[in-house]
Design brief:
The complex is a heterodimer of chains A (about 450) and B (about 525). Chain A has 14 helices and 13 strands. Chain A is of the alpha/beta class. With about 525 residues, chain B is α/β, with parallel strands linked by helices. In chain B, a hairpin with a 4-residue loop joins strand 2 and strand 3. Classes of the chains: A alpha/beta (about 450), B alpha/beta (about 525). At the A-B interface, strand 1, helix 1, strand 3, strand 4 and strand 5 of A face helix 2, strand 1, helix 3, helix 4 and helix 8 of B.
Chain lengths: ~450, ~525
């Protein structure tokens, strides 16, 4: 017999391809990010963090090799399955431009297409998403984790850990089986043995006694055999308590997204706002079983709209911020009783407001909104030039100034000016860190 | 190694017993079946194999090996990740199946079997890879001459480590640049005719020490010569110099990777070593490219023969045999040229058919066979004839030697000439008396990489002048290289050479220049 071995490699760490995968993503990062940004724009807030089928231009990740040109020279090719050709026959070539010419080369590497399609996992997606946001590592890890579980009893199983053996149930099964299969019970056997001993001990047994003794011997043997066949505890009786992972019972939360959609909020501003909302949503998803999203947009009046309308449709009109806050309180009163819901709100605007309304806003915030909210975050999206101008947090337009007043006295209110994705995280810093400590 | 008497009696007693009767495999049934296969393969077919190591791997591991040139021990590179992503997606969506097995030409011979295979498939795969391919690797002259089965696993291990080390020292990006460029000329990185100066492990050790020294000194002595452009030199002087230069650089050189590894003016030692690694990988796989038909034919013939033998002995049940035959015929499927599914000649089908045909010629020859194959026809010893073919031929010469008129008729082979300028294809020859030899030659040429790959040589590198690297493509049959591929690949060569690179296409028949691509022009175009 020659030497040979079978080796089970299935248990080897499965990350062998990971290194290549990471290198690939690194290499195609620019294209992947572009695709990703588009996809963030196109996807629903709640779906952003799921894995994603991406399509990136194949050009940047092409692997060129010298390839013979398909439209030059003379080639001889041997083919199978001749039907009616004889030597010298001429066969018209398929029309040019009609795509493949009857089995012609086309793209040899099979990837002449313009786009390369693959699937990005949730992890990879988040990694790239977080990259621009410059989140602290601890927060990243925290957000990346999927929801936590507890173990609950979930009936009984035939297999399991000895520590989980359910003795009561096992014994009950054993008893039932013993009765059903008529296993001789121990008392009966003992009684019979006693009788045999008594008969054996008799000094002068009669013929009847002897007969009785023989019968007893036989019956005892019979019983003992049956005892052996029908085990006292059989593997089929054994039951284990089973435990099943159950998502941690969390309460529910509602997240309000408030945004100014007047003409001054362009695509860049909305993109930034979306990232801001996504981040809060990721955070909530980690903690709450159920999250409702409410989108409220406003110009000089506020409306509750669906997500599509919220991010994509434009509206003209002035800007009265307080209408959004009132609308939010309306919705809360209507559908989200504060004793059953955790309320979070995120507001994005470019800082403009109808003169005189800012005072109303701060009043509404301080007296009505913030008291019912777990957390309220406000970002003011500026362009670079404005940002320099308002570098000092003290400075700012009326809305900013009146929000500042609220911020000073409330712990669960945070505000921040942002011009790029990396600016967003700090507005949540306290919220995230606080929860991080608890967790 | 045989415990003779005992094995013999065992063999007798279990011939009629099924090796397995379950669709699921276990290591016990694998081992039992392996032994039975081995008995047929060695004692009956007379195969001569390396010791086997059969490894069971998961789907993901198979995909991984798949995307890294079929070599699980491959170094890391982003392109493998890209192929993995593509293959995985296509597999998950059900567009493509997975190979049942991957086998490595090494001693011991390692085959990787997919865990999902049913027991009948595992049996088939073991006969196919662990005996068929294994025998071919061990005996075929190309593999014996060009690959080092004893050292290959160590070498791949070394390569992987070296590249990981280089990544650590010089950064992912720097290593990636060299690998990208080297991969682009991998097809031009093999010695087709002369044997590569292979390194033994000791030489490799020595080389490693050298690599450190490389950094200190200039690599090529030629570079020490100061440019002494007098300008007044005669043309003959320049000619003479060119000749001397070519002699010193051993030009012309067909192996671009080898040339750059040894002569590039700008590369550091570690970069040269990466070129050597890619070159060795390319060379290691080159025999496989030249023997696809034979290698798969040998493996398929072996599994077919062995499985049937076991079935005849009652060691494989009917249901299992049906499953085996089903996979067998799937692998051998050869659609006609006008079928939608046609994608060239299936090497499994051609190889298997030719090998069955050799057996037929040996045992039941016709008059035609006697005329065409006087030595083979009726010789009875088909096992010997096949082993001889497996040892001494590659696809091109095998087809030229053994493709019979009978098989050409059976496959209805015909030769189609495609002249790009014409609006018609012309049927050059068919499976008839006048056509046999032509069809056979054409098919042989189709299976010769030396005939199908572009013939590109380094012809000059003017080290004292502008240091331009001159490549020449000897164009046969007017078939040039796609322009975009030339431009892109030259950029990569320039990366490795450090100076401008020019490639000209010269007609093999009349010496006319058909095209010229240069990084100089590309630069101009970009600016």
């Amino acid at each position: 017999m020659a030497m040979h071995h079978f080796i089970d490699r299935r248990q080897n760490p499965g990350d062998r391809s990971l290194g290549n995968r990471q290198r690939f993503i690194r290499r195609a990062k620019a294209q992947i990010k572009d695709a990703l940004n588009n996809s963030i724009r196109d996807r629903k807030l709640g779906d952003v963090a799921n894995g994603e089928d991406l399509s990136i231009p194949a050009k940047g990740i092409a692997e060129p090799r010298l390839r013979s040109s398909g439209d030059q020279g003379r080639r001889g090719r041997v083919l199978p399955g001749n039907k009616e050709f004889v030597t010298g026959d001429q066969i018209k070539k398929p029309q040019q431009g009609g795509g493949e010419g009857g089995g012609k080369e086309g793209s040899e590497d099979g990837e002449g297409e313009d786009a390369f399609n693959f699937t990005l996992s949730r992890e990879e997606f988040l990694e790239l998403f977080f990259e621009d946001l410059e989140l602290p590592d601890l927060i990243k890890t925290d957000l990346r984790a999927t929801s936590s579980v507890t173990y609950q009893r979930a009936g009984f199983a035939r297999e399991g850990n000895p520590a989980n053996l359910d003795v009561m149930r096992t014994m009950r099964n054993s008893l039932g089986r013993r009765i059903a299969l008529n296993r001789p019970d121990l008392d009966a056997v003992a009684a019979m043995q006693d009788e045999i001993t008594a008969l054996e001990d008799m000094t002068e047994p009669t013929a009847k006694d002897r007969k009785r003794l023989d019968a007893l011997y036989e019956e005892l043997e019979n019983l003992e055999r049956r005892q052996k066949i029908v085990a006292y505890i059989d593997p089929v009786d054994v039951r284990y308590r089973q435990r099943k992972p159950v998502p941690k019972p969390n309460t529910q939360a509602v997240m309000f997204c408030l945004m100014d959609v007047s003409g001054s909020m362009g695509e860049r501003e909305k993109d930034l706002a979306k990232r801001f909302f996504v981040l809060l949503h990721l955070f909530l998803k980690r903690r709450y079983e159920r999250i409702d999203l409410v989108f409220i947009r406003h110009t000089h009046e506020a409306q509750e709209v669906d997500e599509e309308t919220f991010f994509y449709s434009r509206q003209s009109g002035g800007t009265v911020v307080s209408t959004a806050l009132s609308k939010m309180m309306e919705v809360v009163a209507d559908r989200y009783p504060t004793d059953a819901w955790n309320i979070y709100a995120a507001q994005a605007s470019d800082g403009e407001n109808f003169s005189g309304d800012s005072k109303t806003c701060s009043q509404l915030l301080a007296e009505e909104v913030i008291p019912v909210c777990q957390y309220y975050a406000y970002v003011e999206i500026l362009d670079e030039r404005e940002f320099e101008l308002f570098g000092n947090p003290e400075a700012g337009a009326a809305l900013w100034r009146s929000y500042r007043e609220v911020a000073e006295s409330r712990e669960n209110f945070a505000m921040k000016r942002v011009t790029k994705p990396a600016d967003i995280y700090p507005v949540f810093r306290e919220l995230f860190l606080k929860q991080g400590e608890k967790a | 190694m045989k415990a003779a008497p005992k094995t013999e009696t065992q063999a007798d007693s279990d011939t009629s017993e099924l090796l397995f009767d379950d669709a699921d495999w276990s290591f016990k049934s694998l081992s039992r079946t392996y032994d039975a296969i081995e008995r047929v393969a060695l004692d009956d077919l007379g195969l001569n194999v390396y010791p086997n190591q059969v490894e069971i791997i998961s789907t993901e591991q198979m995909l991984d090996a798949y995307s890294s040139f079929g070599m699980p021990l491959m170094y890391r590179h982003w392109s493998f990740g890209k192929h993995f992503a593509r293959d995985e997606k296509s597999y998950r969506q059900g567009h493509s199946g997975l190979a049942y097995e991957i086998v490595i030409n090494a001693n011991p011979c390692i085959s990787y079997n997919l865990e999902d295979n049913s027991m009948p498939l595992q049996a088939l795969v073991m006969a196919h890879a662990a005996f068929g391919h294994n025998h071919f690797f061990k005996n075929n002259y190309l593999f014996r001459q060009w690959t080092d089965a004893d050292g290959v696993l160590d070498y791949f291990q070394y390569a992987k480590k070296f590249i990981a080390g280089a990544e650590e020292r010089h950064g992912l990006e720097e290593v990636e640049k060299v690998l990208d460029a080297a991969h682009a000329i991998m097809d031009q990185g093999v010695f087709r005719y002369r044997r590569a100066p292979e390194l033994t492990t000791e030489q490799r050790q020595a080389r490693k020490r050298e690599i450190e020294e490389y950094r200190e000194r200039t690599f090529n002595d030629l570079w020490r010569t100061l440019p002494d452009k007098e300008g007044a030199e005669e043309a003959t002087e320049a000619e003479k110099e060119k000749l001397a230069r070519r002699k010193q650089l051993h030009l012309p050189e067909e192996n671009l990777l080898f040339f750059l590894e040894h002569n590039s003016p700008i590369l550091d030692g570690w970069q040269r070593e990466i070129l050597a690694i890619v070159r060795n990988v390319a060379q290691y796989f080159y025999p496989q490219r030249q023997t696809k038909v034979m290698n798969e034919g040998c493996a398929t013939f072996t599994h077919h023969y062995v499985m049937n033998a076991l079935y005849d002995r009652g060691q494989i049940g009917e249901g299992a045999m049906l499953e085996i035959l089903h996979s067998h015929s799937n692998v051998l499927f050869q659609p006609d040229f006008d079928d939608q599914r046609f994608n060239g000649i299936n090497p499994y089908a051609l190889g298997f058919a030719m090998m069955c045909d050799i057996r037929r010629i040996c045992t039941e020859p016709t008059d035609e066979d006697r005329e065409w194959f006087p030595d083979l026809a009726g010789s009875e010893d088909w096992r010997g004839a096949l082993r001889h073919a497996w040892t001494n031929y590659r696809d091109e010469s095998f087809i030229r030697q053994y493709l019979s008129p009978y098989l050409m008729r059976k496959m209805k082979l015909f030769d189609l000439t495609d002249n790009a300028e014409d609006s018609h294809y012309v049927v050059g020859a068919i499976h008839d008396e006048q056509g046999y030899r032509k069809v056979r030659d054409a098919l042989a040429n189709n299976h010769d990489p030396a005939h199908t790959d572009a013939d590109i040589q380094v012809v000059d590198a003017d080290l004292r002048g502008d240091r331009q690297l001159i490549l020449e493509h000897s164009v046969r049959n007017g078939i040039g290289l796609a322009e975009d591929s030339r431009t892109e690949v030259l950029k990569h060569i320039r990366e490795l050479w450090g100076y401008e690179v020019t490639l000209s296409g010269i007609d093999h028949d009349n010496g006319k220049q058909l095209y010229r691509t240069s990084t100089i022009e590309a630069e101009d175009g970009g600016a």
